[in-house]
Design brief:
The complex is a heterodimer of chains A (537) and B (48). Chain A is an all-alpha fold and 537 residues long. Chain A contains 20 helices and no strands. Chain A has helices at 11-22, 25-37, 44-71, 77-84, 88-93, 96-126, 140-155, 170-188, 190-217, 230-238, 248-261, 269-273, 282-323, 325-340, 344-378, 382-402, 408-446, 457-479, 484-493, 495-524. The radius of gyration of chain A is 23 Å and the shape is globular. Chain B has one helix at 7-33. In chain B, 17% of the residues are buried. The chains are: A mainly alpha (537), B mainly alpha (48). Chains A and B meet through helix 1, helix 10 and helix 13 of A and helix 1 of B.
């Protein structure tokens, strides 16, 4: 085989890389909105229950499967799932573990470009001018309209094809920059590229977040409405409505937030863990990566976003911003907030640069699984694998940029792949781990080299509670009218959505062919593709 | 009039922050204080 052997440089390196993968825009933009809509401070009760009883145990199962697959000589989700799930069905279901990060990358890299471009806009505004065309002296309604117009033009939301219509568009330039950066770092390899970058990006993100948090917590009351101050802002986010706990939707929302935030079922952890050594402590590594994600989500996301919005926009404005979703809150509302904030241009630059770092540490992890899969399936070099994946990612990403009207292509991939398939993959993984691989064997593997022991009751949770929860979640997705049925109706009426699903289907076909070729190659090389024997190491 | 942070709100906020900061700090303490792996012996140093 002409493949170059990849491995992590240090234990801290793999933890920071997995944490970087987990910490993304959702920590700062989705979490506060979810909390505010589902009981404020009371939301933290189901949230932490979901973390302890679902997120961390499922994560441990994924880390364990990944390292076990690595010990058998595999690093891609299809091959590892084939070993853990013992056969072709699990192997082909494992394709979803390559599809999710690759397809999500198609649009995520575009959003990542927005973050860097917004940071650049603020950096320019520090030396004069206005960021996003927002006049600091105008009324809030006017500022909100300016910000929304800027975002619409910037992302091409008005019509298809405007981003690639011939003239140079700023967001496309930044997309190209961040796309090239991603390819370069992933091509450099696990240790020299991803680990090295995350080792400085994660601390840098924490520093940026601390500065922004300090600024927000020291903001003076709103001069025109002194009731809008830091304490009432924190009250908006943290005051508890315990009645919300009676609503099952709150518990599902909390579990969903934990689930998507920790990147479980995303196909990344299984790949990253496959490069760990047999004696590495994956129990502590998994717990540390989850804890780091929570620090950013609760410590920074829960303290900064809505508190600052409330001081300048009040309860009605903040509620309206939350209702617009993560993009509306992050890219339309917060620029208005920064326009009112003392030193707002500096804070805006730091905030969007921090979002850019959060996004790039996640997007790097999205390219690595497919890169590893191509290398492994075709037995090719890193360079050739990089070239193949770059072409696929370019096609997908340009598709998203071209069909930008109402961000339809982006939204379709986000719904079907970035939301629905994640739950499906997690269910497949946790069922394979608990029921096919076996809990006793799984725990023995997890405890190899571990200083911490996974409590016994977690076995029950991984085997029974997690699959039941995930299957319920899939059932709710399939039945509830505003989820899957609505998406199917929408896709049948909207050609862009339908064609985007065809594009995803073509990527799946491509991955199936690679899996077929890879399986033949692995068998010919004498590898145990169906997990019939224990590792040799 | 917007409500200030209530005593229960304070409690939930402080408990949440203490939990995430404490858990993260404890985890990194355990990771960083773990014994370092012994350096790999140089392969084939005396060969040839």
């Amino acid at each position: 085989m002409s493949q170059q052997k990849q491995e992590w440089g240090s234990r801290l390196g793999v933890i920071l890389a997995v944490s970087g993968s987990a910490v993304g825009l959702g920590n700062f933009l989705r979490f506060p909105g979810q909390a505010a809509q589902h009981g404020g401070g009371a939301f933290m009760i189901p949230y932490f229950c979901a973390l302890l009883f679902l997120g961390i145990p499922i994560g441990w199962a994924e880390w364990t499967m990944g390292r076990y697959g690595g010990r058998k000589g595999f690093h891609s989700a299809p091959a590892i799932m084939g070993v853990v799930g013992r056969g072709a069905i699990a192997r082909y279901l494992g394709i979803v573990g390559v599809l999710i990060p690759l397809a999500v990358y198609f649009y995520y890299v575009f959003i990542e470009g927005w973050c860097l471009a917004y940071a650049w806009e603020y950096a320019k505004a520090i030396f004069g001018g206005t960021a996003m065309g927002i006049d600091p002296k105008a009324a809030i309604d006017v500022q909100s309209a300016s910000s929304a117009t800027f975002f619409t033009n910037f992302t091409g939301k008005a019509s298809d094809g405007v981003m690639l219509g011939g003239s140079i568009v700023e967001s496309v330039v930044f997309w190209a920059i961040v796309f090239a950066l991603n390819v370069w770092f992933v091509f450099r390899g696990l240790s020299k590229g991803i680990e090295k970058f995350c080792s400085w990006a994660m601390p840098a993100m924490a520093v940026c977040a601390l500065i922004v948090l300090f600024r927000v917590l020291t903001l003076p009351p709103n001069p025109t409405n002194p009731d809008q101050n830091v304490l009432t802002g924190l009250g908006y986010m943290w005051n508890a409505d315990f009645d919300a706990l009676k609503d099952p939707g709150t518990w599902l929302a909390a579990a969903g937030q934990i689930f998507f935030s920790l990147s479980v079922g995303f196909g990344v952890i299984i790949n990253y863990a496959s490069y760990m050594k047999r004696k590495d402590d994956l129990v502590l590594s998994g717990l540390t990566a989850s804890a780091t994600n929570e620090l950013f989500e609760v410590g920074f996301g829960g303290m900064i976003t809505l508190t600052s919005a409330f001081i300048f926009l009040g309860a009605t404005g903040t509620a309206a911003a939350v209702a617009t979703g993560s993009f509306g809150l992050g890219f339309t509302t917060l620029p208005v907030v920064f326009a009112h904030m003392p030193a707002g241009n500096i804070i805006g630059m730091l905030w969007f640069f921090m979002l850019f770092l959060a996004a790039i540490t996640s997007s790097l992890s999205m390219l690595q699984p497919s890169m590893a899969f191509v290398e492994e399936a075709l037995g090719t070099t890193r360079l050739k694998a990089t070239a193949i994946i770059t072409v696929v990612a370019l096609i997908g990403s340009l598709w998203v940029i071209w069909f930008s009207k109402d961000l339809a292509a982006l939204g379709t991939i986000d719904n079907w792949v970035g939301t629905f398939l994640i739950v499906v993959l997690a269910a497949v993984q946790v069922i394979c781990f608990g029921w096919v691989f076996g809990m006793e064997r799984g725990m023995k593997e997890a405890h190899e080299g571990a200083a911490l022991r996974i409590p016994r009751f977690m076995h029950f949770i991984i085997k029974f509670v997690a699959p039941a929860y995930l299957l319920t979640m899939i059932g709710v997705f399939c039945i509830k009218d505003d989820n899957l049925p609505a998406w199917i109706r929408s896709a049948s009426n909207n050609p862009v959505e339908r064609n985007t699903l065809i594009l995803i289907g073509l990527v799946i076909a491509f991955l199936c062919i690679l899996t077929h070729i890879g399986t033949k190659r692995w068998r010919a090389a004498g590898l145990d593709v169906d997990g019939n024997s224990p590792p040799n190491d | 009039m917007p409500a200030e942070l209530s005593p229960i709100g304070w409690l939930l906020m402080i408990c949440s922050l203490t939990f995430v900061v404490g858990l993260t700090g404890w985890c990194y303490y355990r990771v960083l204080s773990a014994p370092k792996e012994p350096a790999k012996p140089a392969k084939d140093f005396h060969s040839a």
